[in-house]
Amino acid sequence: MEPVANIDGMELVYKKPHTLTDTPMHYCPGCSHGVVHKILMEVIDELGIQEETIGVAPVGCSVFAYEYMNIDMQEAAHGRASAVATGIKRVLPNKYVFSYQGDGDLAAIGTGETVHTVNRGENILMLFINNGIYGMTGGQMAPTSLIGMKTTTTPFGREASTMGNPLKITELLAQLPGAYFVTRHSVHNTAAVRKLKKAIAASFKYQKLNKGTCFIEVVSNCPSNWKMTPVESNEWLEKNMFPFYPLGDIKVPKS
Amino acid sequence: MIRGTIIVATDICKACELCITACPQDCLEMSPNLNVKSYHYVQLKNDTCTGCVNCAIVCPDSAITVYRQVKTTPKGATV
Predict the structure, then answer these.
(1) Which of the residues A32, A105, A206, B50 could staple to A58 if both were Cys, CB 3.0 to 4.6 A apart?
(2) Cβ atoms within 10 A of the Cβ of A185, count?
(3) Rounded to a whole number, what is the distance in Å from the CA of A248 to chain B's nearest CA?
(4) Do A193 and B57 touch (CB under 8 A)?
């Protein structure tokens, strides 16, 4: 529904972008997916590329991303969003293509596709939502879970000796020659959301240069599976996730 | 001071309270009433809203629309 333009002499300054559909989101209260969807769609709306953008939805909590994003979308098999996005970009090189994946999709089952897509330097944007847990299936340990983090499959906390160390896939991908712009952001407060918006806008612009893959990691929360309120989960995120996953640009284009 | 106001789409609010934390003017609260999904939705508790848009930016469900008073005087001038 379109909001009215004026109330008591006050003008409309912020509304939901029309690139988001009116379907109510199925995400849990306070989930970062909603914010990332909104910011991504705001950028597409502001750049005026709604008709020229194709998104690839993953398997995971964001499996229904195509219900909310009012652009052309394609659903991919689990972990294969970057491979599908590669195909779409090669057939339609003038379109803006992005893949939207979670940590179970991009960093676990789809690690091979992810590494090779970035290594080939496909001209796509990969958005990686990292909350350190498998959200959709009930909070099992993910490769990105922190040491000592309690999940349903690690009830006494993750141990490096038997379960391995958390995977910093963003740093790993930044070393590949095909990566053009690699950065890590968050959406835990307003300033962080604005920074993410700038990074997404920049990566859509870089996509036209055909220089390589743009990769944006968003360190996000999972209030339901971390068993916290949304506000507590954002505090936990700042205290525990940020020391291990520091925010900032990891690889920026040489000007 | 610039005045503003918000309109909350109460039916899609999920009571995550992130907007309440984000509001620099502390002018939001949870309503005692429930919406169709049995969540307490968010509402304005006083008229100190400045239309800064912070609540709408952090809202995961895009439930907040923001309005702001039109600036009629040049910056710094007294009204």
Answers:
(1) A105
(2) 24
(3) 20
(4) yes
Q: In this structure, what token pair is assigned to residue A44?
A: 């597409």
Buried b / exposed e across B56-70, counting CB within 10 Å, b at 16+?
bbbbbbbbbbbbbbe
A19 in Cβ contact with A70 (< 8 Å): yes
Q: Is A32 on the interface with B (CB under 8 A)?
A: yes
Q: Which residue in chain A is spatially nearest to B65 when comparing CA positions?
A: A15
Give me the number of domains chain A comprises. 1
Measured between CB atoms, does A173 come within 8 Å of chain B? no
Does A75 fall in a domain?
yes
Please tell me if residue A187 touches chain B, with a CB cutoff of 8 Å: yes
ipTM higher than 0.90? no
Question: Which one is the CATH code of B4-68: 3.30.70.20, 3.90.79.10, 3.30.360.10, 3.40.640.10?
Answer: 3.30.70.20
Indicate the pTM of the whole model. Answer: 0.94
- CA A177 to chain B, closest CA, distance in angstroms equals 35
Q: What are A199-253's pLDDT values in tens digits?
A: 999 999 999 999 999 999 999 999 999 999 999 999 999 999 999 999 999 999 9
**CATH code: domain of residue A187:** 3.40.50.970
